[in-house]
Design brief:
The relative contact order is 0.22. The chain starts with 12 loop residues before the first helix and ends with a strand. The chain has 413 residues and is mainly beta. The strands form 5 sheets. An 8-stranded antiparallel β-sheet has the order 1-2-3-21-20-22-18-19, with helices on one face.
């Protein structure tokens, strides 16, 4: 997922405590918000603190459906938000573009669900909760209980798949399926011997392979739906049941004011231990929410520069049309190479260092969200960080990447 680079073992609190770090504060923001940027020759960190009694924090999905992406500014502006950051991980490219990679539930609508135990951020009216939980969705028809294999995904093999209205107007399943159609009142309205059926408003569809023996059903029969959050081993004892706004992160960084144990050995080594652009959210003891964006300038070689990018570099140098038409290719390559070499050397943080930063910011809980080229902080009408594409998309280019979902900050009435 990430470009491999050499990691210099620089201690985190370098950016926070050392004398060479410059702090820039924004005194123009309204009450309940505070912003600062911390910069030194190697690191740039953006910090936004939010008083949740004065601002709503909301999850917003790009285009309000499973697929598709929007930039963080676009999501913020249509939400009338003063601030926003990117949130959960997502798929890039092909027919899956914009589909959330892990759990995403917004206003009770399930966009996607990860069944294995994962780290989650839950948004309530005035509080933000973090923890680990294993999620499971199940259906009950009289004494018959079963769980789908996938949620809002294209059918693979002989899976049982759940689709709701955020997926689209129809299930988009192969015709050689059988499907149960359920309305918003949890009543079975159709039992259809083929796929690609219309999804009722606020209802859902259960799609089965033809080989599956369906549970005994009658039209009008009521079906129970239960989303269970199993967090028995969670120290925070978060009550996830009934939660309507949840996004998955990878991983939890801070619990009970301490760096999560084993963080340096969790997951993919490159993802955990190499410096990258990062997005994190934490909560302080008094409930103040802290959003952090860490910059990282991803570099690309001349051989990876696209034709459009090369044209833009040469155009920015303001060469005349005649000059460009007669310029040797070797000279063009030399100009582009010098431009790439002159780019900022700002580097990001490893996950252990990010966790230490969140503790320094007095967070008692904190979670890592999608980072890399997705990391974006929009505040007061502008993107505050330098957003640079990574190996997933637009490597080395200054671009505000469209993302799958965002957390927006809206003034309370």
């Amino acid at each position: 997922m990430f470009r491999k680079i050499i990691y210099c073992p620089i201690i985190l609190l370098f950016t926070v405590l050392c004398a060479s770090t410059s702090l820039a504060l924004d005194a123009t923001l309204p009450n309940g918000l505070s912003y600062e940027s911390r910069k030194n020759e190697k690191h740039v960190i953006h910090i936004l603190s939010i008083e949740p009694t004065q601002y709503h924090l909301k999850l917003v999905k790009a285009h309000n459906q499973v697929f598709g992406r929007e930039t963080v500014p676009a999501i913020a502006l249509r939400s009338n938000a003063i601030a926003a950051i990117n949130a959960g991980f997502f798929e890039i490219g092909n027919s899956e573009d914009g589909r959330p990679s892990g759990t995403l539930i917004i206003n009770g609508d399930i966009f996607s669900l990860a069944k294995n135990k994962r780290a989650f951020l839950q948004l309530n009216d005035k509080t933000l909760s973090l923890g680990n939980a294993a999620l499971n969705i199940k259906f009950t028809i009289k004494a018959n209980v079963f769980s789908p294999d996938a949620i809002n995904q294209f059918v693979k093999n002989k899976e049982i798949v759940f689709y709701n209205h955020v997926w689209g107007p129809t299930s988009l399943t192969p015709y050689d399926r059988q499907e149960i159609v359920v309305d918003k009142d949890f009543r079975v309205t159709k039992i259809v011997n083929h796929g690609d059926n219309a999804i009722p408003a606020q209802g859902w569809i259960l799609s089965f392979p033809k080989s599956q023996v369906l549970p005994p059903l009658k039209i009008g029969q009521k079906m129970a739906l239960d989303v269970n959050f199993n967090n028995d081993n969670d120290k925070n004892n978060i009550q996830w049941q009934g939660a309507e706004n949840i996004v998955m992160g990878i991983p939890l960084l801070v619990q009970d004011g301490q760096v999560v144990s084993g963080l340096d050995s969790a997951g993919q080594k490159d993802f955990v231990m190499l410096p990258h652009a990062r997005t994190a959210v934490g909560v302080q003891q008094d409930g103040t929410v802290v959003m952090v964006i860490v910059e990282h300038v991803y570099k690309q070689s001349v051989g990876k520069v696209s034709l459009e990018q090369a044209r833009n570099i040469l155009r920015d140098k303001q060469y005349s049309k005649e000059k460009l038409e007669t310029m040797p290719a070797s000279e063009m390559c030399s100009i582009i190479q010098k431009e790439l070499a002159s780019q900022s050397n700002v580097i990001g943080l490893s996950l252990p260092d990010l966790a230490k930063l969140m503790i320094d910011l007095k967070c008692v809980q904190a979670i890592n969200l999608d980072g890399g080229g997705s990391s974006t902080l929009f505040l007061n009408g502008q993107v505050k960080n330098l957003a640079v594409g990574d190996t997933d998309e637009a490597m080395g280019q200054k671009i505000c990447r469209p993302v799958s979902n965002a957390i927006v900050v809206v003034k309370r009435d």
